[in-house]
## 1
Amino acid sequence: MSTRLPGARYRRVFDCGRSAKGRFLIAWMHASPGVGSMAGVVASKKAFHDAVDRNRAKRLMRESYRLVSKCGEAPADVEWVFVARRAMSGRKCGDVMEDMRCAMSRALRQGR
């Protein structure tokens, strides 16, 4: 099963979910029983003017989520949307992954 969030579910996560800000990204979460752990990524033209920078930001967030979920730190039955912030420019995957962990745990604490 794919871990990528289908495009039709982004709106539900934004409308019904909770968010937590990190230094490099904003993590939106929505608990959905029976769905599994899925994630989507967003990098806007307003934050990243060049397509190369937008694609790198999305690639960093996807890889960070893959590594976080591989370690078992991503809870099951939660849909995530990660929105890149301008501060992500020039960062390494380890930095983004650590910030993602912090934002995810903050969002989970708010959801309870």
Note: Residues 7-111 form a domain with the Ribosomal Protein S5; domain 2 fold (CATH 3.30.230.10).
## 2
Amino acid sequence: MTTDAVQTTNLIKTYNGLTAVNGINLTIHQGELFGFLGPNGAGKTTTLSMLCTILKPTNGTATVWGHDITKNPDTVRKNIGIVFQDPSLDDQLTGRENLRFHARLYKVPHDDIDRRINDILTIVELSDRADDLVKTYSGGMRRRLEIARGLLHHPNVLFLDEPTLGLDPQTRQHIWTYIERLNKEQHITILLTTHYMDEADHLCHRIAIIDHGQIVAQDTPTRLKESLGGDIITLTATPITDQLLTSLRQIPNVKNITQTDGTLQLTVTDSKKTIPLLFETTARCNCTVNTISLREPTLDDVFMKYTGHELREEKNPGKSYMMRQRMRRRMHR
């Protein structure tokens, strides 16, 4: 068996002339917790849906656990679990009944069903609520039950599509703990999609940043941040003139400057030497510094560097929601 859990080569998906995924090349190793980071509408869910055999690629190839997604889709499905972005539990059933129904869909051996359900409920800490109706569950409990359902048939690869979307900060932290535990203790390969920078930074061994259907950067969170080459200084000054910008760029330790309205963001090396030079330069240009702050780079800064813009909101969330609903129906036919 290959040591690669997921591998894609020039994976492409088009819809009526619109390219949603444009040449994705990706390798995810067995046991890795890999993040697909990007804004809504960037192509994350479409890529995941192709890997799960819900959508067929327009071009390119991909394997999951060594099996081709187009030639051997049934075998791929036996090796994967998936947690959809949108809720997909039956809230008129209990947690245990939801899991039992899923076990039958995936043809879990009858004699193993009860044991597997009890084991997985223990892992996600829902044993005491297993026989309550799902409609009485909190949002975090429902998400944990969906993760449990995705694990019930012992998949080798677990796909999590925006696993903490819409959850409060405390519940998100709890879900992060479960995801980390699954990866470390159960040795499950996990691919998660997210547009939360802190989530990708906290959880993932490696990250692929995707924008407009293309991977623009890929590495560990630490190395991605180090690729910026310095600390970030943010300052507001009045007035911001062309003379000021030209003079700031001539400071030896200033590597990059971006401007948003009255705010300047500078990537600098040796910030202790650079900050006094910034004040000298603004004074020489007859500009007043109103505020100034120094911090280490974040994934937000990395995203800005490689895409040229901040994370944007989805332009048509209703359309995306309907597409995901169709995908889920296909998955359970």
Note: The first strand starts at residue 4 and ends at 15.
## 3
Amino acid sequence: MSKGEPLLEIETDKAIMEIESPGDGVLEGIKAQEGAEIPVGQTIAWILGPGESVPAEQAQAESGRRHDTPAATVSAATAELKVGTTASSARISPKARRLAKEKGVDLARIKGSGPGGEILASDVLAVAEAGSAAPSTTKIQTQPQLSTLARLMAERTTQSWTTVPHFFVTREIDARGLLALREAFAHQNGQSSRPTHSDLLVALVARVLVKHPALNASWIGDGIRQNPDINIGLAMAVDDGVVAPVIAKADKTDIAQIASLRKDLTERARAGKLHPQDLSGGTFTISNLGMLNVDAFTAIIIAPQAAILAVGRIADRVVAVDGQPSVCPIISCTLSVDHRVADGARAARFLDDLAQAIADPGKWLELR
């Protein structure tokens, strides 16, 4: 194999990563099969150059296993290896691999339609749909197994909901200042660079948190840890769950940089190519469902963070302005807080400052 050639995919509790070969050589001494759970730091194979061989202790261990393994088992293992080799002879997108696993599609049956014969998600779906259209020979239906990401998300949200003492505060905020900021930014920098509402909220929330460090803290063990940096996680939906990639030091990052980082993280999240460092170090999370026309909701805290902000859509509502009815764009924000870290008064003061920042963002950040 050549340097840079896709070598394997690793699925962690947070992301699926495609690992490329670090150098040229021959892959030998493979110690793990597809689907195996491997401890961090364990050797799974060697890439050998000319004249190199698998370390003696590994070769001896492999020999011992071969002598101790019944012939039928060896044959089955050999057959499995051949099937795996056939399926991996072409590039397979991470999304296609996940879909194939979920829908029970044999990748060896698929001829990829992507560049260089790469198997795409659309190829897997076409085979799956063709199979579902065929006459059924049995009435037994099985539910697809949860992916590692979906399973761990279920476990962690359950743990957070049952162990973290949540409380919630909600504020309906005049969003005219936020909308004006977005238009002003687009006018100054070009329509193609128009930030999303989430981009602006990341910038504003981070700057408000500077004034409210208690909401940027974490509950660790039996005490509170004050986090030195403000790292904003932004919840994103992917095929089999939700991930929250992090924009580090968001209070010191301008809008254009936040928009660029968020776009890159979104694209890689949807492609299943986030790295562990993209998902680490978050100190506060924003979950925005406004683009899905949700008016308001409450979110579950991502422990050990102290809070998460749930944001609904911006919608015109009739409100009182100077004693008179007026139509204004309103955004609903609900803050979920760990009561061990902050109380209701601190949460209310944070939302009050956030309301001021959204209504008049110019006082909280520079327009760049």
Note: Residues 1-68 form one domain.
## 4
Amino acid sequence: MPPKRPRRDGSDQQHGAAGGKKETLRDRRFDAVNAGVEEACQEVEEERKQLAEEKARSIAEAQEAAIKLKADAAIEVDEMRRKLQEERAALEEEKAAMEKAHTFQKKKVLLNVGGHRFETSLQTLTSVPATYFASLFSGRFELTLDAEGTYSIDRDGIHFRHILNFLRDAGSFKLSSEVTEGQKEELAVEAKFYGLLDRMMPYYAQERVGQALLQRACLTGTNQELRTAVAQARVLVFEIGSTTPFLTDEFQDVQFAISDRVVNGSPVWAASSGIGELFVYRGVPAGIDSGMMVIGDMAGCVEGVDKYSIFNTTLTGDTGAAPTDLPTDMWVSKARATLEPEYAAAERIIPGGNVVWVPSMRITVVHGLRDGDPTMAAALR
């Protein structure tokens, strides 16, 4: 029997329609999944490309930095090499100069000073700056040697040994006590020629002033004048100041040296250190002041002028006095010599006045004639 044909009733049609919808839905889902996968793959690919580009860029930057670092390092190495070469050249130059100087300084020098022959070295002769020999062997002058290779100096050769001994050991040189006053005067002339007087005999000029004071007092003075001259000759150089911060720098810790100048019948000590021009001298020997010892500038240090900044209230009378004879607690000061705060608070010598007491004033003797000096010995007798 032939097979039966399928029935084409409504149920078959409904079944076919349902199957078609399922296939369509499945196809749509498949397409959606594919689209999502493709989109995800594209994003992954984009990220991969970005990563690759960033990696390539980083590598390029690293290579560029490495090249720059290498170039900078090369420049730095070249600079270090150049500096090293310069330092080496400078060192070699300095070494050569030192060797030359060493050879120069150790070179034996023969001198003929006034017919007296001496042998020394350039190191000794040029050991003290700003002297005759430092200038002579500075290289600025053409020097001439005699046939025996000797430098001739037309000066007194008898005292030159003292000059040479000082140059050999300037720091501890002491003139022998056996040198007489006459020989000392001759030596001073030679030391001055060689530019060494102030260093060899630092107080020579002041000693001459002290000796002149004593000689004059011995010849024509009274006993009082003689005692005053002795006191002054013992204080040829002194330092004065306050041990407290009371005076201005101009008047604090100033060293004074006696000079050959006389004002109001008494010697003048001139400042050899400190600020400005200051002098210690006796004031006008008349009136109530009666020649008090004062400290002032050039304007006041004039015969018959009564102008100063610091003075000692002790009356010295007509004979004058040495600064060390005066009581240290009797010094007074005007405003110029006193620090402003101290001046404002200081005790006035006269209530309401402009002069104040200077506390803790001191005078320290730096140099004076010894009792063994011939003129001092004669005055003491």
Note: The CA atoms of residues 261 and 267 lie 6 Å apart.
